[in-house]
Specification:
The chain has helices at about 5-20, 30-40, 45-50, 80-85, 95-100, 120-125, 130-135, 155-160, 240-255, 285-290, 295-300, 315-340, 370-375, 400-410, 425-430, 510-525, 530, and strands at about 60-65, 105-110, 110, 165-170, 210-215, 225-230, 235, 265-270, 345-350, 380, 390, 395, 440-450, 460-470, 470-480, 485-490. It is of the alpha/beta class and about 550 residues long. The chain folds into three domains: about 5-50, no CATH class; about 60-430, Alkaline Phosphatase, subunit A, CATH 3.40.720.10; about 440-530, Arylsulfatase, C-terminal domain (2-Layer Sandwich), CATH 3.30.1120. The strands form three sheets. A ten-stranded mixed β-sheet has the order 7-6-5-4-8-1-9-10-2-11, sandwiched between helices. A four-stranded antiparallel β-sheet has the order 13-14-15-16, with helices on one face. It has a two-stranded parallel ribbon with strand order 3-12. Strand 14 and strand 15 (about 470-480) form a beta hairpin. It is globular, with a radius of gyration of 24 Å.
Length: about 550
């Protein structure tokens, strides 16, 4: 009935027909053919006709990001081959699986969280846009209705899903403004807590993630809860990291049809630990705590800027315990990848949303600061046989993650025009392509705007902006009346623990140089500080 050669020839000729009809240039033939196959004829029928589809060898992507995991909490930084790339000591933690993973990966020593706070980071990672553009300027909660991921934002999962990837999200999202949308109790929030922080994300706000096992934010590590793809709530009453790893392995095994069988996948796993609380064995596993329970403060706190008189000092044992627990579960995930034969064609990324000061700098606030312990985060990426394992000192910002991963997946032409970050895949792959290497990373800190008569926060107050260069940390903060509050400069090479601030008045040339770099970065991002000329009106 069919002439096989003619039919298959139609498939071979289709890309040229597509271009002649005004199709987009530079679109990969296999992507066009995939779309054409879906429109014209089922794959099963093609097999009957003798036309064989090329195997979809696009890489899978697994993105595992624990919350509040600082870069210093990685044991390998104390090893000579890694220590030579940093000027500080690593924490006395045990992370054997991440140490081994680093040996197979590109490890960025200067990965920076542009806005080191949970919700803003997630917006940046998902969209490749800074907070003002993606909608998440502050941590999401009920009293901040204007801080929420824009519905029209194009996320990395939107792009990958449109390109045929099966996308799954497991764990903490914290990117949506909580509303009274509890699936089990319509018209009510998901809990009776006030103010409400936790949130249910309905299907229409999942941005291409077809498999869902997630929640907004909830900090009981051994009493987690999740809503699945169908909006059904689950309360497993186990340590969240282990449970989420179990769910991730089920996804990899595709035990219940969580993903399309023959399609590449994008799996995001957002662990909450080692995020606070870190006060008792309710917050971590006893087997991990036992490794640190007998250590004194002098052993736990090796950073020269730590103040062990702070109330928070006992937290280190529990924090490090959760770091080790995350390490073990991440190792289980890697083992499952290998057992399933998926490791060679899977890009695995291990970052974090922000760090943890842990008694450094005399503050109890673990994040939302330009200090290295908060601003500098892990970013480790493995792609077997495609990258050369090494430490890289490129300033890698969280806004660069989306375009870089899309490019590594062969989807450079699909990077949305809304993206404000840079494609740094040539740095990772060392493929010889030109790459606009960043000279600095932008730092953003916002506070609540004014409240209305109902107690709802209106907008945000842009309290501070700064940059990290290869050598210096630089921040300007303002008061509510937008007068100058403080200028901070640190030489991170000569003063790695940021103990000796440099006076901007006594070092005018350095100050003017850093100020020019900051202004250029603010203009590039079209930041509110640039648009409203905040720096121009300051008296230094």
């Amino acid at each position: 009935m069919y002439n096989e050669k003619i039919f298959c020839g139609i498939f071979d000729a289709f890309p040229y027909f597509y271009y002649s009809c005004g199709g987009r240039n530079h679109i990969e033939e296999d992507r066009i053919m995939d779309k054409f196959n879906k429109i014209l004829i089922p794959v099963s029928t093609l097999a009957m006709l003798g036309c064989t589809d090329a195997k979809d060898d696009r890489p899978n992507i697994i993105y595992v990001y624990p919350d509040q995991f600082r870069n210093q909490a990685l044991a390998f930084w104390n090893e000579p081959e890694y220590a030579e790339h940093v000027a500080w000591k690593a924490d006395p933690v045990k992370t054997p699986r991440l140490d081994g993973f680093a040996d197979e990966s590109v490890v960025f020593s200067r990965a920076m969280s542009n806005c080191p706070l949970s919700s803003p980071y997630r917006g940046i990672f998902l969209t490749g846009m800074y907070p003002e553009r993606n909608g998440i300027t502050l941590n999401c909660m009920a009293e901040r209705p204007e801080s929420s991921l824009r519905e029209d934002a194009v996320c990395i999962s939107d792009v990958l899903s449109e390109q045929g990837y099966s996308c799954g999200y497991i764990g903490k999202l914290h990117a949506d403004h909580p509303t009274p949308n509890d699936p089990a109790n319509p018209g009510h929030y998901v809990s009776d807590r006030r103010p409400e922080w936790d949130a249910y994300t309905p299907a229409e706000r999942r941005h291409g993630f077809s498999f869902w096992y997630s929640y907004g934010t909830f900090d009981e590590h051994k009493n987690p809860h999740y809503w699945d793809t169908d909006g059904v709530r689950h309360d497993p009453k186990v340590w969240s990291v282990g449970h989420e790893t179990d769910k991730a392995i089920e996804f990899l095994r595709n035990e219940n049809g969580q993903r399309k069988k023959d399609a590449p996948f994008f799996l995001t796993i957002a662990y909450n630990p080692p995020h606070s609380p870190y006060e008792s064995l309710d917050d971590c596993m006893a087997e991990d705590y036992s490794l640190y329970e007998d250590m004194g403060y002098s052993e736990l706190y090796v950073r020269e800027n730590a103040d062990t008189t702070l109330r928070k000092a006992p937290a280190a044992r529990y924090y490090f315990a959760n770091v080790t627990g995350v390490d073990r579960e991440f190792g289980r995930l890697l083992d499952a990848l290998e057992e399933l034969g998926l490791d060679d064609n899977t890009i695995v990324v291990f970052p974090s949303d922000h760090g943890e000061t842990m008694c450094s700098q005399g503050t109890e606030d673990p994040k939302n600061s330009i200090y290295t312990e908060s601003f500098n985060v892990p970013f480790i990426i493995r792609y077997p046989e495609k990258i050369r394992p090494r430490v890289d000192s490129t300033l890698f910002s969280s806004v660069d993650i989306m375009p870089t991963l899309l490019s590594m997946a062969g989807l450079k032409d699909e990077i949305p025009s809304t993206v404000e970050g840079r494609d740094l895949s040539p740095v990772i792959l060392e493929n010889g392509e030109d790459c606009n290497i960043p000279e600095s990373a932008l730092y953003i800190r916002n506070l609540n705007g004014p409240k209305d008569e109902d107690g709802m926060v209106k907008g945000f107050f842009p309290v501070a902006r700064g940059i990290k260069t290869s050598r210096f940390t630089f921040e300007i903060s303002v008061n509510r009346d937008r007068s100058l509050n403080e200028v901070i400069i640190f030489d991170d090479i000569q003063d790695p623990y940021q103990l000796s601030p440099i006076s901007h008045k006594d070092n005018p040339e350095l100050f003017e140089n850093l100020l020019a770099k900051l202004e250029a970065k603010l203009e590039e991002a079209n930041d509110i500080w640039y648009r409203e000329e905040i720096i121009k009106n300051l008296k230094f």
